[in-house]
């Protein structure tokens, strides 16, 4: 059910377009790269799609377009813009169904890690998870 929810969010986010604020902040940052550093809680990827320089942007809660292995000790992570990410997660343009209407998808039809065969998961911060340590590093210096 978690994957179905995030597949729906990915699908809807792909349909969205950056708004004038995304575009203006991206342009201002491109013109002033030494002065502007943006931290966003959004996971939709609209800032990068607006052309915001990645070196001046931290998505503190991750993003919908990265998937990672659910196993803590596996370091597999990848960018994935596929919609759907796997055929079983195809989304209709209707609203997300209520709990009773959500079909059960067999584990074997969900995305799996090519490295260790565990399930992949969206690389977003779930409730009660710690923020990744990487968000506290300066992306322009990798420190």
Q: What is the fold's blueprint, element by element?
A:
Layout: H1 2-15, H2 20-31, E1 38-40, H3 46-49, E2 57-59, E3 62-69, E4 77-79, E5 120-124
Parallel strand pairs: 1-2
Antiparallel strand pairs: 3-4, 3-5
Helix-strand string: HHEHEEEE
In total, how many domains does the architecture comprise?
1
Poorly predicted residue ranges: none
| Quaternary assembly | single chain
Question: Which structural traits does this protein have?
Answer:
three-stranded antiparallel β-sheet, alpha+beta, 143 residues
Description of the molecule:
- The chain has 143 residues and is of the alpha+beta class.
- It has one domain (2-131): SIR2/SIRT2 'Small Domain'.
- The chain has 3 helices and 5 strands, in the order H-H-E-H-E-E-E-E.
- It has helices at residues 2-15, 20-31, 46-49, and strands at 38-40, 57-59, 62-69, 77-79, 120-124.
- The chain has a 3-stranded antiparallel sheet. The protein has a two-stranded parallel ribbon with strand order 1-2.
- A hairpin with a 7-residue loop joins strand 3 and strand 4.
- The longest helix has 14 residues, at 2-15.
């Amino acid at each position: 059910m978690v994957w179905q929810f995030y597949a729906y969010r990915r699908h809807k986010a792909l349909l969205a377009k950056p708004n004038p604020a995304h575009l203006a902040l991206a342009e201002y940052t491109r013109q002033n790269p030494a002065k502007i550093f943006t931290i966003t809680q959004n996971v939709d990827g609209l800032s990068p799609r607006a052309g915001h320089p990645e070196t001046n942007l931290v998505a503190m809660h991750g993003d919908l377009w990265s998937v990672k292995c659910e196993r803590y000790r596996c370091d597999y992570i990848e960018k994935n813009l596929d919609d759907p990410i796997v055929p079983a997660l195809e989304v209709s343009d209707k609203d997300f169904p209520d709990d009773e209407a959500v079909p059960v998808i067999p584990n074997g039809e969900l995305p799996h890690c090519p490295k260790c065969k565990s399930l992949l998961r969206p690389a977003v911060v779930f409730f009660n998870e710690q923020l990744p340590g990487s968000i506290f590093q300066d992306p322009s210096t990798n420190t």
